[in-house]
Amino acid sequence: MSRAPFGATPDGIPIELFTLTNAAGTQLSAMTYGATIVSLRVRDRAGALGDVVLGFDSLTGYLNHSAYFGAIVGRYANRIGNGRFALDGTTYHLPRNDGPNHLHGGRRGFDKVVWQAQPFRNSRGVGLALSYTSPDGDEGYPGTLTAMVHYLLTDGDELVVDYEATSDAATPVNLTQHSWFNLAGAGGGDILSHELTIAADAFTPVDSTLIPTGVIAPVEGSPFDFRVPSTIGARIGAANRQLEVADGYDHNFVLRREGPGLVLAARVVEPGTGRTLDVSTTEPGLQLFSGNSLDGTITGKGGLAYGRRSGFCLETQHYPDSPNQPHFPSTILRPGDRYGSRTVFAFGVQR
């Protein structure tokens, strides 16, 4: 593992970049700004390494664009309707940074702060431990929250992401890793031919502002049925109100599970390179985002423009707007309790 300077924030805080390499040569680089994964180099069927996450060559790109490339987002990943929620008799108001709604922790969420970092090594591989303390009232949230994220790159080509958090007051918490993937390589065209399977029998439909309606709807007979492998682009243009509202996929899937612990959430295969990605998680939901907002105006790594749908996100998380949806799994963390979550991104090759 190695560490190197990676620029400084506008207020002069130095940023470090840590690079972890496993026994197979797979390489992960992550920086302290936003606990962001900057690059992830994995092999294709020919044995060639390629970077499979979108991002930038320098810190400047991350400072100038709010696409959440590779970042940890929080305190609350995804949306909270109308930028408010009620908790224990008090109504809290949050920044509305996505139309009428609150998105990914607000104007200065966890993706835009500097985390403390310490590399580590164990019997499974090499890793990076990151921590950040969010003060009471940060972006409108109650309580002082201490968050910890561990990235572990195993010698089996797994990226294990462990999340922990504690708070001195009741507060919503919903953390996720927001990498945009393209298994053909970052900047290697659109992701519509990637074959996707999602272990979900239901999803949460949204209103015109992408807030869940509260309904848990079956995927059967809809463009949201990924229970058997289908390319991301196969039905993305179908005449379907949910696809029209989101301009593609930007929806939470209700993962199939029978109890606690890790379950397989999704599998992705990129036919051209043979690269595969299996996502397992302890979370109840998975947000599929098909990169609808990219339009070629963002220039990423190597000077390549990121065109429409040139990356996809698989965000393991609790459901959007859970603080306002009492029948959704709770996201409230109380003093004395510990928030804990694990997601595993396992990379492989299909011959």
- Rg, rounded, reads 19 Å
CATH architecture: Distorted Sandwich
CATH class: Mainly Beta
Number of domains: 1
CATH-defined topology = Beta-galactosidase, Chain A, domain 5
pLDDT < 50 runs, ≥5 residues? none
| Biggest sheet strand line-up | 11-12-13-14-27-23-22-17-20
**SS content category:** mainly beta
Following the backbone from N to C, one meets helices and strands in this order, namely EEEEEHEEEEEEEEEEEEEEEHEEEEEEE
Percentage of β-strand residues: 35-45%
In DSSP terms (H or I, runs of 4 or more residues), the helix count works out at 2
The helix content, as a percent range, equals under 10%
Shape: globular
Mean pLDDT: 97
Q: Tell me about the largest β-sheet.
A: 9 strands, antiparallel
How many angstroms does the end-to-end distance come to?
30 Å
**Count of distinct strands:** 27
Describe this structure as you would to a colleague.
This protein is mainly beta. It has helices at residues 59-64, 241-246; strands spanning 2-8, 14-21, 27-31, 36-43, 49-51, 72-73, 79-80, 84-87, 90-93, 102-103, 116-122, 125-134, 145-154, 158-167, 171-172, 176-177, 195-198, 200-204, 217-218, 230-231, 250-255, 263-269, 275-281, 285-289, 313-317, 332-333, 339-349. Strands 11-12-13-14-27-23-22-17-20 form a 9-stranded antiparallel sheet, with no helix packed on it. A hairpin with a 5-residue loop joins strand 22 (263-269) and strand 23 (275-281). The two termini are 30 Å apart.
